[in-house]
Write a sequence for this structure.
């Protein structure tokens, strides 16, 4: 139950100077979360219960919950209701992060699954330019899903240049995810990040367990050893579970 709700079914119509009902609902839930009364994973009262408590329409309740989702305070799960969101992970953009280490640093259980792994040669010039390799380059392609406490943490689509990292083709990646293996085995000299906001399509929504159209962050990364590309990878992160940070100096030069 919402702690000490101020509005009950049957309460007289609100005065003009009162806050809209959806704002009251949003504030009370937010107070329960920010005060620590409701921790990560705490189940929010069902919409039908909130409708009864506040004597309002389901559309009003939905607006309040949608605002809390946008603020990153709750996560809405299809057919199972809403829960308090886990702490947002702060990810620096000026370094290459090991996702397994990130999850473990949050004191959460890390697991991963590889849904596809195949070797190919890049034959299309547009594809070659997009990845950043010459036509004919042998590549190892992988589709990986990362989990934290069983909850989807990030989708990964990776291309590894087998001219630069030939040993990758013989690795089954049953113990270590590809990114962890690459950071340990293949020294890199230069990296590039490109980030943009996207809306989850039906495939992303199903795999990440978010609503279709939910805000997500797409992070594309390239790493090189001298002038040779090592890997091109794209991560899709649920927007309410992550925050990215770039620190910089007054001159615009990134902080090391």
């Amino acid at each position: 139950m919402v702690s000490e709700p101020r509005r009950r079914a049957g309460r007289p119509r609100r005065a003009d100077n009162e806050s809209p009902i959806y704002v009251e609902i949003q504030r009370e839930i937010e107070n329960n979360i920010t005060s620590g009364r409701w921790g990560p994973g705490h189940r929010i009262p069902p919409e039908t219960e909130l409708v009864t408590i506040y004597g309002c329409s389901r559309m009003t309740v939905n607006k309040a919950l949608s605002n809390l989702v946008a603020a990153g305070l709750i996560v809405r799960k299809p057919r199972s209701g809403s829960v308090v969101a886990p702490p947002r992970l702060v990810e620096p953009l000026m370094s290459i992060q090991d996702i397994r280490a990130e999850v473990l640093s949050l004191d959460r259980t890390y697991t991963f699954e590889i849904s596809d792994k195949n070797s190919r040669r890049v034959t299309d010039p547009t594809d070659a330019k997009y990845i950043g390799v010459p036509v004919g380059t042998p590549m190892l392609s992988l589709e990986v899903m990362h989990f934290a406490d069983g909850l989807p943490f990030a989708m990964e689509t990776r291309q590894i240049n087998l001219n630069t990292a030939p040993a990758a083709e013989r690795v089954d990646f049953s113990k270590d995810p590809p990114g962890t293996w690459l950071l340990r085995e293949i020294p890199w000299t230069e990296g590039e990040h490109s980030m943009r906001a996207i809306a989850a399509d039906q495939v992303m929504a199903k795999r990440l367990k978010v609503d279709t159209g939910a805000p997500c962050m797409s992070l594309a990364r390239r790493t090189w050893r001298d002038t040779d590309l090592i890997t091109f990878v794209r991560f899709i992160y649920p927007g309410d579970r992550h925050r990215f940070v770039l620190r910089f100096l007054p001159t615009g030069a990134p902080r090391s």
Notes: The mean pLDDT is 84.
